[in-house]
Specification:
The complex is a heterodimer of chains A (about 260) and B (about 400). Chain A is α/β, with parallel strands linked by helices and about 260 residues long. Chain A is built from 10 helices and 9 strands. The model of chain A is unreliable at about 100-110 and about 255-258 (pLDDT under 50). Chain B folds into 2 domains: about 5-195, Thiamin diphosphate (ThDP)-binding fold, Pyr/PP domains (Rossmann fold); about 275-395, Rossmann fold, CATH 3.40.50.920. The chains are: A alpha/beta (about 260), B alpha/beta (about 400).
């Protein structure tokens, strides 16, 4: 988890975005002192609601850069993700995938599942990049807790994307650390052995299954009008000059005056 | 502070309760509406959306009521006065974030147009069945403020009051209306902006480095800052200390949650809003709220003309409950008559507060009807002839039934 915080830290630094304009609503508890070091405003909200809460933050103050960090494999917040992506709300969603739903063979990972479920798990996981891509996300990527520098690059890049960006991060849930202290190094070895880098791969082919390697990389990078763009365009069309646009206005070339 | 002129549609209008509520919100300075549409609350959002571009307000239709209130809480932290509007089933979904709003001490207003439940109930038909839910619906201990308007004018006035109290006490405030009041078209007088008092948000004024998001003032209310100003604060829905850091100890639960309760309980005298009519010499007092109070006030006139000493206590705020005043009246009167459009909610609070000193007659209209003045009058007449005081609630039934 700390390696992810570090990657967020580096990503923000590389992106050059003003830290005071960044806020992180999260449904998984970060260590307060660690998140303090990020220098951002932080909200811990109920499970699965980070994207919904973040939508309010972004609409309330469109100058903000909002980075919802979600766990739980979006079981609770799945619909918020689907609809946030559909309306292209300008958020950078970091989805921490802790394998609880994954039936991957391998010692480390089975330890994770056994810690949660004595007979391991038998459910199919989501293919998140594919889900995000098909709902209309402008940026999707997947990295593991091992790929911190790539993750940082990705975060820096995605922070400048206009619209819903999604980065899936394979990492152990922080609460497991309390019980399984040896997990860290073993899992890193597992990530090292089993991940394969394929940038621009078709998201349909990147599902995590038991028999294939974990595909990491950047899968989607496209442009699409954001929710606030569409909100302004529609009102402008009907109300004409009487309408004062909400938030910074961007022209079609992608440049902005805000 | 006076209201922002751009949101105030000064003049005399014919508005439905829902439309008056939207006007009240805009007059109070509400600039964000997060909603998921549900009948019979649609006109609030329609009116708000129609007027939003004129006043620079924003809105979003979220994917469900859970996210609608989540977005409202988020928007409130950016410094925008925010509200959501819903009806019974949506209100049930909002309970998770009602609790979060209490814990994060986020000012916002939840307008609930009550309809008949439980489950899917009788959609679009009026009821008052969610009064207890507004008080106890979310898990854990908390106190909340809830208004019960009885007319379109009160929908306007109470919406402004709801925003003011939510900013003053940093707590979500519920406006518990019902489908009848919401759809009723009536004359609404909207005063000019300089006649509307607005409670400004209590902002932190000290040095940036020493800001603690939950450091309370003497009245238990911590001052706020907007996000994106570089305060770098940490806020959590877990039990937390002044810094907003989660602390998993019992002592912290007391330190954190007790003030959430006390900031309302210690100031109930300032929050409670009740209207009394002819209670000075009354032998029977009708306690009612919302649309039921319209019939009750009529009954007071009719009963007085027949020579019965009858008064009315109208609850403008149902929560916190005016238990002191009800206890005072209990030792004066023979009986309370409580008409409600449910199977007994506020009447239980009346019973608790009366402490066995007065008879309590309960008129149920849980079957989606508004009380007939005739029924209330008959109950009042029966109550005024009671010789002795019985414990508990007497459910009054029509004599013909």
């Amino acid at each position: 988890m700390n390696s992810i915080i570090e990657a967020i830290h580096k990503g923000i630094e590389k992106s050059g975005v003003d830290r005071k304009k960044i806020s992180i609503p999260s449904d998984i508890p970060f260590e307060p002192e660690t998140v303090k070091s990020l220098g951002v405003d932080y909200f811990q909200v109920p499970r699965g609601r980070a994207i919904a809460f973040g939508s309010g933050l972004k609409l309330g103050n469109p100058d903000l850069k909002v980075i919802p960090v979600v766990g739980d494999l979006m079981t609770l917040g799945g619909n918020h993700f689907v609809h946030g992506t559909r309306r292209n709300m300008e958020l950078l969603v970091l989805c921490i995938n802790n394998f609880v739903y994954h039936k991957i063979a391998g010692k480390s990972v089975s330890v994770v599942t056994e810690a949660f479920s004595p007979y391991s798990t038998f459910e199919e996981p989501f293919n998140f990049p594919h889900l995000g891509n098909s709902c209309g996300a402008v940026y999707t990527a997947r990295w593991t807790a091992l790929h911190t520098s790539e993750l940082a690059e990705s975060i820096a890049e995605a922070l400048h994307k206009r619209g819903m960006s999604m980065i899936e991060i394979l990492a152990p849930g922080p609460s497991y650390y309390r019980y399984i202290t040896h997990l860290d190094s073993e899992l890193m070895q597992f990530y090292f052995d089993n991940s394969i880098l394929k940038n621009n791969e078709d998201p349909r082919n990147v599902a995590i299954t038991a028999d294939k390697k974990i595909v990491v990389g950047k899968f989607t990078d496209k442009e699409r009008p954001t929710f606030i763009d569409s909100y302004n365009t529609q009102h402008k069309k009907i109300l004409g000059d009487e309408f004062t646009p909400h938030g910074p206005v961007f022209d079609k070339a992608g440049g902005g005056n805000g | 502070m006076k209201a922002d002129k751009s949101g105030v549609l000064t003049g005399s209008h014919i508005l439905s309760g829902n439309e008056a509520c939207a006007e009240g919100a805009l007059a109070a300075g509400c600039r964000f509406l997060g909603l998921y549409p549900i009948v019979p609350s649609l006109e609030v959002s329609k009116r708000f959306l129609q007027r939003a571009p004129e006043v620079g307000a924003t809105f979003i239709q979220m994917e469900d009521e859970v996210s609608a209130l989540a977005a409202v809480l988020g928007a409130s932290w950016t410094g925008k006065k925010s509200m959501t509007v819903t009806s019974g089933p949506g209100f049930s979904l909002m309970m998770e974030h009602l609790g979060l709003g209490v814990m994060l001490e986020t000012p916002c207003v939840i307008v609930e147009i009550q309809m008949v439940g439980p489950g899917l109930g009788l959609p679009t038909r009026p009821a008052q069945g969610d009064i207890m839910q507004s008080r106890w619906g979310s898990h854990g201990d908390y106190e909340i403020i809830a208004f019960a308007p009885s007319s379109a004018q009160e929908m306007f006035d109470f919406t402004i009051k709801a925003f003011n109290l939510s900013e003053r006490y940093r707590v979500p405030v519920a406006l518990m209306s019902d489908a009848y009041v919401a759809q009723l078209k009536e004359k609404v007088a909207i005063p000019s902006a300089d006649q509307i008092n607005i409670e400004p948000r209590r902002y932190y004024g000290g040095p940036r480095d020493s800001y603690l998001p939950f450091k309370r003032d003497e009245d238990f209310v911590p001052p706020m800052v907007d996000i994106g100003q570089g305060y770098r604060f940490h806020v959590t829905g877990l039990t937390h200390d002044d810094r907003g850091y989660p602390i998993m100890f019992e002592e912290c639960q007391e330190y954190n949650v007790h003030p959430l309760v006390r900031k309302i309980r210690d100031f109930t005298d300032k929050i409670i809003d009740i209207e009394e009519k002819n209670t000075n010499d009354a032998e029977v007092v009708i306690i009612s709220y919302g649309v039921s109070s319209r019939a009750s006030l009529k009954v007071v006139e009719q009963a007085r003309s027949k020579g019965h000493k009858v008064g009315s206590l109208k609850l403008n705020t149902v929560w916190p409950f005016p238990e002191k005043r009800v206890a005072e009246l209990a030792s004066q009167v023979k009986a309370f008559v409580v008409p409600e459009m449910n199977f007994g909610q506020v009447v239980q609070e009346v019973e608790r507060s009366a402490y066995g000193k007065a008879n309590i007659f309960f008129l149920t209209h849980g079957d989606n009807g508004v009380e007939y003045a005739g029924d209330i009058l008959a109950a009042v007449e029966e109550a005024s002839q009671m010789k002795e005081t019985k414990c508990g609630i007497t459910e009054w039934k029509k004599r013909s039934a």
